[in-house]
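Hi V.,

You were right to ask for the full record rather than a summary. Here it is.
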Amino acid sequence: MPELPRDRVMGEAMSPLREGEAILAEWPADKERYWRSHAIMAVLGGALGGVVLLAIGNPTPWVGPVAAVLAMGVRAWYLASEALAGRWRLTTQRLQGPGGRQVSLGQITTVRPFFGDVQVISQAGDKHLMKYLADGAGVAAAIQSAKAGFNP
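Predicted structure:
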């Protein structure tokens, strides 16, 4: 398959480090996790599609699962270049993500694993979902540890 060019709408570079700020950890998107997530969505979507077609009396309910697998395969292939280029960076002062996302460690109120991903919520109510991580629970623990040691 040819490589699709990335969409530049979300931006690429993270802001530079501030004075006295150091990188604690970086988490790139995990390719295996990305494809596994899409496979799970295809299976669940296919099962749901088949059940709905059976329930409405469609004579060919096999079309639902086939369509779901094809749709999720195309979606996964189309979005892979963008999703797999995303990475998150934890510093001594903040959490930075793709598209210029950032939140100060002092502003983070909630960090929790969420179906293998990590959800981060700030005091302002901003929600960030760190997707396609190889070890979501480990990432959440690292962010909570950095937040506990944060001294503004």
